[in-house]
From TrEMBL:
Main location: membrane
GO cellular component: plasma membrane
Name this polypeptide is given: Putative zinc metalloprotease YwhC
Cofactor(s) listed: Zn(2+)
Membrane topology label: Multi-pass membrane protein
Alphabetic keyword roster: Cell membrane, Hydrolase, Membrane, Metal-binding, Metalloprotease, Protease, Transmembrane, Transmembrane helix, Zinc
UniProt xrefs under InterPro entries: Metallopeptidase_M50B (IPR052348), Rip2-like (IPR044537)
Transmembrane annotation, as ranges: 12-31, 40-60, 89-114, 126-149, 161-181, 202-219
Any Gene Ontology biological process: proteolysis
Record keyword Secreted present: no
GO molecular function: metal ion binding; metallopeptidase activity
């Protein structure tokens, strides 16, 4: 018999706290210029912060499921924010980080195993699926707040560019996660509202949804259109192409630390 989560089931994992500590320390190094190689500080800051956002993404799914009726969530360790407890740590953490390193894109991860049979009501099922990408949306808003609040006075360029690149990752993750493709959260939002026949026909394709997205993004026209949309959203939030470009250049410190021109004004 499954019981409600205990206090130990909700205790924040030391693994997550360690990742958060790396985020804070590397962010401080990028802000103060403490690191000999600012690009390495940006790399650590963005990568660690990206993993933190992945943990929060999965936590949002789990927490919403808990309040919707799946009390088995606690025993699985999903409320501890420990990425090692996820059903597929490779998909949830390793692959998204590799895609950031290789292509500068926030690849959707997953997953936490939710016992959907315990949950009643289509709206609850949709909300559970939406909770994860909504976390990415919130993360993007927080990262871009200094830009759209015009509060960048005194913010070092290196840290500014790091925030911009991190925001780009969150926006790409939110867009991709909300695509109504089997296997992604966007499909999970609409799935409860589909007929049983449609869901039965679509189910075999769910394991390949992420691969399909990856393949489609390799098409140059699709890739350009996708990043044009991402750039437009970021510009609406006050983040320029200049900011994200230099953020990604700094992030790829192994290609050599660039000489960053000073911002005008």
């Amino acid at each position: 018999m499954t019981t409600a989560p205990t206090r130990s089931d909700r205790r924040v994992s030391p693994v997550f706290l360690g990742i958060a500590a790396v985020t804070a320390a590397s962010g401080w190094a990028a802000w103060t210029g403490f690191a000999d190689n600012p690009g390495f500080a940006v790399f650590l800051f963005v990568t660690a912060a990206w993993i933190v956002s992945l943990c929060l993404h999965e936590y949002a799914h789990a927490r919403t499921a808990l309040h919707s009726g799946d009390i088995s969530i606690g025993a699985k360790g999903y409320l501890t924010l420990n990425p090692l407890k996820y059903t597929h740590a490779l998909l949830s953490i390793v692959l998204p980080v590799l895609f950031v390193i290789m292509g500068g894109i926030g690849l959707p991860g997953g997953a936490v195993f939710i016992e959907r049979g315990r949950i009643q009501g289509r709206w609850r099922h949709s909300l559970i699926s939406a909770a994860g990408p909504l976390t990415n949306v919130l993360f993007a808003v927080v990262c871009t707040a200094p830009f759209w609040l015009d509060a960048l006075d005194g913010v070092p360029d290196t840290f500014r560019y790091a925030l911009a690149f991190l925001a780009l990752l969150q926006v790409t993750a939110a867009i991709l996660n909300f695509l109504p493709i089997p296997g992604l959260d966007g499909y999970g939002v609409i799935e409860p509202w589909l007929s049983h026949e449609i869901r039965r026909q679509v189910e075999p394709f769910a394991p390949f949804g992420l691969l399909a997205v990856f393949g489609i993004l390799w098409i140059p026209e699709v890739n350009h259109a996708f990043f044009d949309a991402v750039d437009a959203i970021l510009r609406g939030l006050g983040v320029s192409d200049w900011d994200t470009y230099w953020g990604q250049r700094l992030y790829r410190f192994w290609q050599g630390t660039p000489d960053i021109p000073a911002l005008n004004g």
